[in-house]
């Protein structure tokens, strides 16, 4: 049984669309939000509950109006603390198990130290599960993973009035606490390190552009900075999408090495990394003797490889603990401070070496 059905059976609460017109005296109502945003009251309700799909532009307008007017769902007397922090995770096929394990382990440890438990909220039907958790008072605060621009979960959090922390890529702030993961400097460090080793043809293996999202693996700025540094250093870089399957990895490598091929790979997906290392061995290419490899992954996945790769290590544990502390800080009446920014670091391993053969630079692409 899905979370939404379970919570429906467990709780009885009034939907935001059922809020009486006018609400309590002096309170901002759904009608006020609707009038200010130029939409119907039902549209505002759908934005908050996630019961229907609303266009990003309309959702953004409603969100900004909720924030500006300070609308909060009507509630009765303040409830005692539940001692629970909800962690909202999009239910995606993109599984980054090493990152997830590190994040949730650190978050659970920090929560226990502060007297809280964690409630995992997964919802593949939009924002309805998150709406139900906040409406029913099942959690004192919410941590939202993989938060990005125009995230449909933001209006739910703004309307709930509960403390919330967004964990995601750097972006504009909307009145909610946030912990940002900034990959841009790591992109520069990665390319400069390979260029220092003499590499002049590099392939960047990223996720397929058609995939819906990338939990705790924010791509903003990384690929752009790799290309910018490559141009500065006179290095040719090609980018290829590569899904975490043996067949797709084989296809990708066969295309790259059809002729001379690159002397270095940047593997920007921890689920793809072991497949790439295996496929290179099957093709008789030694790492790092024939080809250097830099991974973007968790410390856990880096440690599971046959040789420890040079890696841009994602600090998932730091993110988990920091997000919990920011949530509890707000529960203790602390203000919403400036966003915390966490930077992945490049850690030298055994998978990179200086170029030992003549090479023909790849065409730029």
Automatic annotation (TrEMBL):
Keywords: DNA-binding, Transcription, Transcription regulation. InterPro entries: HTH_LacI, LacI/GalR-like_sensor, Lambda_DNA-bd_dom_sf, Peripla_BP_I. PROSITE patterns: HTH_LACI_1, HTH_LACI_2. It holds the Pfam family Peripla_BP_3. SMART domains: HTH_LACI (SM00354). One of its GO terms (molecular function) is transcription cis-regulatory region binding. Residues 28-87 form the HTH lacI-type domain. PANTHER family: LACI-RELATED TRANSCRIPTIONAL REPRESSOR, LACTOSE OPERON REPRESSOR. This is DNA-binding transcriptional regulator, LacI/PurR family. It comes from Amycolatopsis tolypomycina.
